[in-house]
Design goal:
The chain has about 150 residues and is of the alpha+beta class. It has a single domain, classed as Alpha-Beta Complex (Sufe protein. Chain: A), CATH 3.90.1010.10. Helix content is about 45%, strand content about 20%. Strand 1 and strand 2 form a beta hairpin. The longest helix has 23 residues. The radius of gyration is 16 Å and the shape is globular. Bound molecules: zinc ion (ZN). Zinc ion binds next to helix 2. The site of zinc ion has 8 residues, from helix 2.
């Protein structure tokens, strides 16, 4: 990676850390989940509003390192308006890029690509993927609620 690209990516991460997008709690969310990364001290909550199969709104709150916060902010911008399947696919590609397993997928990630350099710092992979794991957990929790027996009263 060229030094210029490194700088560009760093500025995206710093910007999202300083001014995180969609950084608020959500009263009327369909589902939410918390994520914790004890290794670094990152913790955050992700809220999702689902409109059928579409993630119509997403927000987060929490505290942690610049990577975890910037990653959560970039994620909310990336998955808003996407279908659940699209969001899960993005997670899978993002994970492949930050772990270094599939660096070639970075080109398909848009601004999420800014975090691809994390693959050189294995301890930071958990920071970068924390919000995504919480998003995934929130979707699963929503399914569990849907699948719960419904009272006929
Ligand atoms: Zn962290």
């Amino acid at each position: 990676m060229s030094a210029e690209l490194d700088e560009l990516y760093q500025s995206i991460i710093l910007d999202h850390n300083r001014r995180p997008r969609n950084f608020h709690a959500m009263d009327d969310a369909s589902t939410h989940a918390e994520g914790k990364n004890p290794l670094c001290g990152d913790q955050l909550t992700i809220w999702l509003k689902l409109d059928g199969d579409i993630i119509s709104d997403v927000s987060f709150q929490g505290s942690g390192c610049a990577i975890s916060k910037a990653s959560a902010s970039l994620m909310t911008a990336a998955i808003k308006g996407k279908s659940r399947a699209e969001a899960e696919e993005m997670f899978s590609k993002f994970h492949g890029v930050v772990t270094g397993a599939h660096p070639e997928d970075a080109e398909t990630l848009g601004s999420l690509k800014a975090l691809s350099g994390v693959s050189r710092f294995p301890l930071r992979v958990k920071c970068a993927s924390l919000a995504w794991h919480a998003m995934h957990a929130a979707l699963l929790r929503n399914d569990a609620v849907d699948a719960a027996p419904v009272s006929t009263e």
